[in-house]
Amino acid sequence: MKKILVYVLLLFFSLLFMAPLFWAVTTALKSQSELYLFPPKWIPSVWKFSNFAEAWNIQPFNMFLKNTLIITILSTFGQLISCTLVAYGFARFQFKGRDFLFLVVLATMMIPWEVTMIPQYMLFNVLGWINTLKALIVPSFFGSAYFIFLLRQFILTIPRELDEAATIDGANKLTVLTRIIVPLMGPSLILVAVFQVMGCWNDYLGPLIFLNDQTKYTLTLGLSQFKGMYGVDMQSIMAITVLISIPPLAIFFFAQRYIVGGIATTGIKG
User: Fold this and answer.
1) b/e 113-122 (16+ beta carbons within 10 angstroms → b)
2) In terms of C-beta density within 10 A (0-12 exposed, 13-18 middle, 19 or more buried), how is residue 160 classed?
3) What InterPro entries does the record point to (predicted)?
């Protein structure tokens, strides 16, 4: 009975959390006349799949998608390269002030982005990066304190004997990183990649501040503009929302075992 009660509760809360997504999908498939019925109608009488194509073509969402993909792919690549190098340095190299410097890096996580937003804008304005995608891509190549911490903790779980064996065979530090450490860091690198992709894909405040030209807009800005122009066209708004939500949901679904594995193996050794 205890097991049955647990499964019933899990099923109930699963349906409760899935209800908003189900409502968004069904609303996107409804006709205009069924949107504001009372009591609400969960299942539409006629499934209008054409709502997705019509909503997508109202604004240049193909261009918004291209900009979002460019930012997401390059930012993820930058985070993986920079954070891996920094984490490897903190985990394997011995130098004066290493622990203090690592604490300083961790301390930056306590500074909210809203505090550094204005200094960043002023810096990017001097560099001429305002209204360009550089403002959203280049900072990723300087690493993230959270990702550096995750990768460092994972590298610490890898035995040093592997490094020493490779060094005896004539491998330098970079070879040890690329040939031994990185292949063993698969789960943690996938974890960082998934977090970064979701962060870039759903980012709204960054593009809103740094981008002014519609040709540079991302999907989130395009959706915001769409909602402003067609505030009562609820099924089109829901159609775009559902389409934008599909990639992160798919990535999370296929990478969830790597996410759990990466988090589970992080912090085992301090």
Assistant:
1) eeeeeeebee
2) exposed
3) MetI-like, MetI-like_sf
> What is the tens place of the pLDDT at every residue in 192-205?
998 999 899 989 98
What type of residue is 209? I
Q: Count Cβ neighbours within 10 Å for each residue of 6-18 and write b for 16 or more, e otherwise.
A: eeeeeeeeeeeee
CA 67 to chain centre: 15
Distance CA 70, CA 136 (A): 10
Measured CA to CA in angstroms, residue 108 lies from 129, 177, 240 at distances of: 24, 26, 36
Angle at 140 between CA 134 and CA 141, to 5 degrees: 95
Domains of the chain in start order, with CATH, are: 48-264 (1.10.3720.10)
Q: Which of 58, 54, 48, 59 has the alpha carbon at shortest distance from 25? A: 48
Neighbours of 38 (CB within 10 A): 5
Q: Give me the residue label for tokens 């340095």.
A: 89
Long-range contacts of 204-207 (CB under 8 A, 24+ apart): 205/113, 205/117, 206/135, 206/136, 207/136
DSSP code for 108: G
